[in-house]
């Protein structure tokens, strides 16, 4: 049995996901992407719109140097996926650099 608090993260997008994490023993959840779309977050309106209007079936999954990642189907999200399809696995630093170049 784990004797430290466990925080569940990744793929938790609503109350059902949070309840499932709590049912499995988590003491808290981290829902980072969900809070990008809040008015307090300085992300662009286009980013907020893309996050709030995507269906789970539309996510792009690709292999990176750290495992499989999912992203929303924006131009920034498609770039690492296209490279992965061509056999170029990217680490998280390279992915973030590429995304920042595309959205900034």
The tally of beta strands, per DSSP, is: 4
Low-confidence stretches: none
Largest sheet: 2 strands, parallel
SS-derived structural category: alpha+beta
Tally of DSSP helical segments: 4
Quaternary structure: single chain
Order of helices and strands: EHEHEEHH
Question: pLDDT average, as an integer?
Answer: 77
Q: What is the rounded distance between the termini?
A: 45 Å
- Helical residue percent band: 25-40%
| Portion in strands | 15-25%
- Radius of gyration equals 16 Å
Question: How would you characterize this protein structure?
Answer:
- With 104 residues, the chain is an alpha+beta fold.
- It is 38% helix and 15% strand.
- It is built from four helices and four strands.
- Strand 1 (7-9), helix 1 (15-23) and strand 2 form a beta-alpha-beta unit.
- The longest helix has 12 residues, at 92-103.
- The chain is globular and about 45 Å long.
- It starts with 6 loop residues before the first strand and ends with a helix.
- The model has no long low-confidence stretch (mean pLDDT 77).
């Amino acid at each position: 049995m784990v004797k430290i608090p466990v925080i569940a993260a990744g793929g938790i997008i609503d109350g059902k996901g949070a309840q499932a994490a709590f049912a499995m023993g988590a003491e808290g959840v981290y829902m980072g992407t969900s809070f990008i779309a809040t008015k307090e977050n300085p992300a662009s309106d286009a980013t907020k719109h893309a996050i709030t209007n995507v269906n789970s079936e539309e996510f792009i999954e690709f292999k990176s140097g750290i495992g499989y990642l999912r992203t929303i189907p924006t131009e920034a999200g498609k770039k690492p996926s296209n490279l992965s399809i061509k056999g170029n696995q990217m680490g998280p630093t390279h992915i973030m650099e590429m995304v920042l170049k595309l959205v900034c």
